[in-house]
Amino acid sequence: MTAPTWSFFNAETGLFASRRYSGSSEFLPANTPVGSIPMEGAYDWQAQRVDLATGQVVDYQPPVPPDTDDETFAWDAGARRWLASPTLAARKRQRAAPVQALIDAAEVGQDRAQREAVLALAAGAAVPAEAAQRLGEIETEVLPLRATLQAIAAATTQAELDAIP
User: Fold this and answer.
1) Of 7, 37, 100, 112, which has the fewest Cβ atoms less than 10 A away?
2) Where are the beta strands (DSSP E) in 79-137?
3) Helix or strand or coil: residue 35?
4) Which pLDDT tens digit goes with each residue over 120-130?
């Protein structure tokens, strides 16, 4: 035989605790949190509460979590939960990250060419052709990526962000 499950609700608010107890009713008092009342059954502490006036379990919509720079919340009646959605700022950062990684990867190979160019200029000599060519190749690769980053940063709607190739 399966032991009964007990949920606990706050005696002052009717809100269920996330904790439950399954076991003998003999040990229920020792497992009941202070200030709580046990109720037989497994209740959804995030979407149900006890109406203290009637003693009945009713649907409950908790307060909306605060929005952040990365998330905004909307109530999903089917899930009976506040669901987070990324903000435009978060989606822009997510979209920009791989572009920035491509820029970083391209620029990794420029150190030697830059050093050769700077040393030549400091000595009053012409920049070596190989160094100038390498820096030009990197700039040709990076320039459109920088333009993409600028377009991402300038996007003011999801549609504008989605339109960026």
Assistant:
1) 112
2) 81-86
3) coil
4) 999 999 999 99
